Amino acid sequence: MLKGHLDMIVLAALAGGPAHGYAVIQEIHRRSGGAFDLPEGTVYPVLHRLEQKGLLGSRWTRAESGRERRVYALTRSGRRALADQRAVWQRFAAAIGGLFGDAGDAAAEPGR
Amino acid sequence: MPQPSPVADYLDALTRALAFDPALARRVRRETADHLGEAVERDGGERITTEARAVAAFGDAHMLARRFAAASLMAQTRRTGAIMIAALGGIYLAMKGRIAWYGIVQWGVSDEWRAMNTVGVWLDRWAFLLALAGAVMACGYIATRRAPPEFHRAYGHQLGRCVMLCAVAAAALLVTVAIETVLTGCRLYAADFSAAAAIPALTLAVELALTGVLVVHIHAVFRRARCAATLLDK
Q1: Hey, are the CB atoms on A68 and B149 less than 8 Å from each other?
Q2: C-alpha to C-alpha distances, A81 to A66, B2, B176, nearest whole angstrom
Q3: Closest Cα partner for B32 from A26, A30, A69, A39?
Q4: Which of B50, B96, B218, B220 is the most exposed place for a label (fewest CB within 10 A)?
Q5: CB distance from B112 to chain A under 8 Å?
Q6: pLDDT for A16-53, tens place per residue?
Q7: With contacts defined as CB-CB under 8 Å, which chain A residues touch B59?
């Protein structure tokens, strides 16, 4: 299930500002409360794909350690795509919540 | 004796797995080296153990390569489709330019070559139309494909079909350019080479160069797709 939403998850992790791959995976881990325990490398094909789609921009920088690092940031299209996906997800979550709520009510009142 | 380094070994394995796209392999290697370096630094334990832990957390190199392959090969196939359209457009303009030049300099076909020229032009036209039809089909097929999250066998077959359609169009284009070369050569031979021959020679060179670029690109996509397909056996 997570596989189909990786693009949205990565876009959401970059909503706070530019970050490199390691920081993106840490942010996903932190904000999901450790629920998304992905192999760390899986974030890179997603970052590259989103960059090809024009949803992310990237550039090489030099870290304090002296290592070269690629930093990714949302483009304008990326922000728009994230807002769209967030709206779709919220509608979907509300609909599922409604269904589960009804199911919960029915379970609580079996005679109804 | 050099110390073993799980990170260095992993980077080599990942680079080998990404051999289907050397530029991508170089970039991913640099990014992965930074990621694993950061993970090792933050862990702060004994070096070989922390490196092994960082590599294990990063994921299998072949699985990652399959994920990169899907988007990379689609981008290359789309680029080849665009080059094919550009080549067809360029060759068409070169042909029209040459014909217009023959009109300007009143350069007719000698009686000696007239029969061969008639057959050649007929073949040339049909070969070009076949190339155009092949290119339209190839571009339509490429445009309706979507790169999956991970390279798999069925996707490999789809890419194979893209390459095959491009190859059919390129083969027809090669026939066109070969006929053009013969017909132009006959005209230049009959005209005893003059300064006016520079334009036909130049347009022919453009056609040959465009066809060459297209063939090289199709061959590169074919080679890369075949290289990526080996990832499925690992």
Answers
A1: no
A2: 34, 49, 45
A3: A69
A4: B96
A5: no
A6: 999 999 999 999 999 888 888 788 999 999 999 999 99
A7: 39-42
Instruction: For residue B72, give every residue at least 6 positions away whose Cβ sits within 8 Å of its Cβ, in sequence order, or none.
Output: B20, B21, B24, B224, B228
> Which pLDDT score, from 0 to 100, does residue B92 have?
94
Q: Which residue of B has its CA nearest to A2?
A: B149
DSSP for A51-80, written as a single string: HHTTSEEEEEEE-TTS-EEEEEEE-HHHHH
Is residue B221 left, alpha or beta, with left meaning phi > 0 and alpha meaning psi from -120 to 50?
A: alpha
Q: What is the dihedral of CA B73, B76, B82, B83, to 10 degrees?
A: -140
CB A41 to CB B35 under 8 A? yes
What's the CA gap between B20 and B14, in Å, rounded? 11
Residue of A nearest to B73 (CA): A49
For helices A76-108 and A6-13, the axis angle rounded to 10 degrees is: 120
**This model's pTM is above 0.90:** no
Chain B nearest-CA distance from A54, in A, is: 13
Q: Find where tokens 């027809």 sit.
A: B172
Q: How far is B111 from chain A (nearest CA, A)?
A: 57
Which positions 75-94 of A are in contact with B (Cβ < 8 Å)? Answer: none
B43 and A CB contact within 8 Å? no
* A21 in contact with chain B, both atoms CB, cutoff 8 A: yes
pLDDT, one tens digit per residue, over B152-183 is 999 999 999 999 999 999 999 999 999 999 98
Distance from C-alpha of A21 to C-alpha of A28, rounded to nearest angstrom: 11
Report which of B96, B94, B80 is spatially closest to residue B169, judged by C-alpha positions.
Answer: B80
Residue B187 CA to residue B56 CA, distance in Å, equals 68
